[in-house]
UniProtKB/TrEMBL annotation:
Active site: 267
InterPro entries for this protein: Ald_DH/histidinol_DH, Ald_DH_C, Ald_DH_CS_CYS, Ald_DH_CS_GLU, Ald_DH_N, Aldehyde_DH_dom
Native organism taxonomy: Bacteria, Pseudomonadati, Pseudomonadota, Gammaproteobacteria, Pseudomonadales
Keywords noted in UniProt: Oxidoreductase
GO molecular function: aldehyde dehydrogenase [NAD(P)+] activity
Signal peptide per UniProt: none
Keyword Acyltransferase: no
Organism for this UniProt entry: Pseudomonas lactis
Key word Phosphoprotein present: no
Family: Belongs to the aldehyde dehydrogenase family.
Name listed for the protein in its UniProt record: Aldehyde dehydrogenase family protein
Top-level taxon of origin: Bacteria
Domain Aldehyde dehydrogenase as annotated: residue spans: 29-492
Length: 498
């Protein structure tokens, strides 16, 4: 009989987990040079989980030196692409073999439901790593037509030392979106996870060594924002790839400019509009999808459908269906396999979301939720919350809340809906629901967003599609073959042959 993975199973397993909190530099786990540590907490109960190395500039210097050394000697950058592929595939197989352990670490450290980490974060991470491993021996350069006395090539070369600074909402997955293409392309990588969720990144570093990734090629420096800042200012880091807030993204861009003009890639926030036209093919499905779009992962999703724009004539019906669908997203204990949503990452984020709920009560009509829940555990749990706004001027209709808060905005015409959708500084994602080809075509062309869904939301998680934003949602794209270009330089080689 297969083991029953109920809450008791995960709680029991949690007791036996060894939590590695040391940084990973040059192929080994090490304490910070100063021996300083900070604590990572579990959002499940707000209790301390483990002490973690607080890396300062001295540690960042060591990691950068190890990455630089490994890059220049060519232990990784100098391998044939198919040799790198083989090692990355071994690493992916090890991650798969450790799915339960890694998913549990992720749920403990981030408060995400175990069903999500086992069913989404881990498979997504492994898929991403495999996809870039499989891609790398199928990449070609170019041979342009030239004057016959010359022969020239355009080739891709790795950048060198790539720093990846990532957030806490999908700790492993966001890291994999950076390190998979960067490593596949032959770079050496320094990963800086969020101080709120460092444990899964540290654990996979040990598995990288087991897979055969040479010392110095994959490093993890743990710490707070200052550790990320040290990477952004470092003169020997060639590229910094960042996912997080616009505020920090701006600072990283400034620091890159002030130091060595390292390449900067930013995946930032969003306030994505989900537009439902009156000729939507299935209102009940649009309502279910709208609930999932905002309440999954407790709304802590950069591409969350946080604005639901509904054509006035169907607003009452859609809202009724939405209120019913929202009942499926009541938080539960994150280690209960039936829980669809879990805890908010920490008290700071919880307070921020609660402030927005108070603002929402002043400027819009509260339709559902808005309360914190104390019956689950001592962590921060919030009811899924829905506001109905009179128009699109409310703060809650424009600012990223990054929590389980949806604002519904009625509109009259498609032009109005597109104008509202495009009015924020962001441009990460959008969706339109309609049965009319002309409406769909107009909307998909005019919505300023890196991803536009039609008659669905958040569907087709497929590495072939680039992910990233227009406007202040960032630059560059994660995923797809386009992401490789972020981690390579183009080289033109021109030979006189005659
Ligand atoms: P954040 O505060 O910007 O932090 C992101 C990362 O940057 C963390 O590792 C953080 O370290 C580090 N950091 C903080 N200050 C830094 C500095 N001065 N220099 C360099 N690094 C620094 O963002 P967050 O609160 O973790 O994540 C939420 C934000 O990320 C939201 O705005 C969300 O929309 C965005 N996001 C975007 C995407 C996307 O793909 N577009 C995906 C997920 C999330 P510490 O955590 O240790 O302070
Ligand atoms: Mg934590």
């Amino acid at each position: 009989m297969p083991e029953l993975k109920d809450r008791a199973y995960w709680l029991e397993k949690a007791k036996t987990l060894r939590l590695e909190g040391r940084a990973f530099i040059d192929g080994v786990y090490v304490d910070a040079h100063s021996r300083a540590t900070f604590c990572t907490y579990s959002p499940i109960d707000a209790l301390p989980l483990a002490p973690v190395a607080l890396c300062a500039s001295a540690d960042v210097d060591l990691a950068v030196a190890a990455a630089r050394r490994s890059f220049e000697v060519g232990v990784w950058s100098g391998l044939a692409p198919r040799e790198r592929k083989s090692v990355l595939l071994k690493w992916a197989a090890l991650l798969e073999a450790h799915t339960d352990e890694l998913a549990l670490l992720e749920s403990l450290d981030s408060g995400k439901p175990i069903a999500d980490t086992t069913g989404g974060d881990l498979p997504g991470t492994i898929y991403c790593l495999r996809w870039f491993a499989e891609l790398i021996d199928k990449v070609h350069g170019e041979v342009p037509a030239t004057d016959p006395r010359f022969f020239g090539t355009v080739t891709h070369q790795p950048l060198g030392v790539v720093a990846a600074v990532v957030p806490w909402n999908y700790p492993l997955l966001m890291a994999a979106w950076k390190f998979s293409p960067a490593l596949a392309a032959g770079n050496s990588v320094i990963l800086k996870p969020s101080e709120k969720t460092p444990l899964s990144a540290l654990r996979i570093a040990g598995l990288a060594v087991e897979a055969g990734i040479p010392a110095g090629v994959f490093n993890v420096v743990t710490g707070d924002g200052a550790t990320g800042r040290d990477l952004s200012l470092h003169g020997d880091v060639d590229c910094i790839a960042f996912t997080g807030s616009g505020k920090v993204g701006r600072e990283i861009a400034k620091n890159a400019a002030a130091s060595n003009l390292k390449r900067v890639w930013l995946e930032l926030g969003g306030k994505s509009a989900n537009i439902v036209m009156a000729d939507c093919p299935d209102i009940a499905q649009a309502a279910r999808s709208a609930a999932a779009a905002i309440f999954a992962n407790m709304g802590q999703v950069c591409s969350a459908g946080s604005r639901l724009l509904v054509q006035r004539s169907i607003a009452d019906q859609l809202i009724q269906e939405l209120l019913d669908a929202t009942d499926d997203y009541q938080p539960g204990h994150p280690l209960d396999p039936d829980s669809v949503t879990g805890a908010i990452i920490d008290g700071v984020q919880f307070e921020r979301v609660c402030e927005y709920i108070e603002i929402g009560k002043q400027e819009a009509q509260l339709l559902k939720g808005g309360n914190s829940l104390s019956h689950i555990e001592s962590g921060a749990y919030l009811e899924p919350t829905i506001f109905l706004a009179k128009d699109s001027s409310a703060r809650i209709a424009n600012e990223e809340i990054f929590g389980p808060v949806l604002v519904v905005i009625p509109f009259d015409t498609l032009e109005e809906a597109i104008a509202i959708a495009n009015q924020t500084e962001y441009g990460l994602a959008a969706a339109v629901w309609s049965s009319d080809l002309k409406t769909i075509h107009t909307a998909t062309r005019q919505l300023k967003a890196g991803t536009v869904w039609v008659n669905c939301y958040d569907e087709l998680v497929d590495m072939n599609f680039p992910f990233g934003g227009f406007k202040e949602s960032g630059n560059g794209r994660d995923n797809s073959a386009h992401a490789l270009s972020k981690y390579t330089e183009l080289k033109s080689t021109i030979m006189r042959c005659g």
